[in-house]
Amino acid sequence: MRPGVQARTLDIHQALGKRVRLAMSASLAIRGQPRHAMAIAMLEEAGLPVADVSEERLQNFFCVADKGAPVGLVGVELYGHEALLRSLVVAPRERGKGLGIALARHAEAYAASRGVRSMYLLTLTAEPFFERLGYTRLDRSAAPASIQRTSEFATLCPASSAFMVKVLSSA
Fold first, then answer.
1. Structural domains of the chain, ranges and CATH numbers in brackets
2. pLDDT of residue 107
3. Average confidence score pLDDT of the chain
């Protein structure tokens, strides 16, 4: 392990059947509510929707920065017992290091702590990644009304997007 890097263990045994050790610098802590300009820049660079990303919506977003440069972002939209995981993005240079898993798990824990039982998402490119985290594909017609009313579901993500769900364990 490189000097200055501490190993953090992320328990994802439910999704992967094993423990994964993440090598993350101590400065790569997940923090709440990113700056609007930073979030928009990361999302646009990744080709993800930004039309509905407001300062208010960013209250349920989380980010990771390395020396002030953004390297990861995830958002959650809360709708009672349901939530929409959105905008999970990791900078290309940080991919494959477990940061996406850590961000997804953080978003799930955040949602569960607010009474969410089911986490939904839409993706064009990351279906295998989310399957490894325990999400399963659903037909869009099975979406609850609260999710169908979101701008991501209704207009921003194409009908060809995979629609997925994960039941969150109550802890």
1. 5-167 (3.40.630.30)
2. 97
3. 84
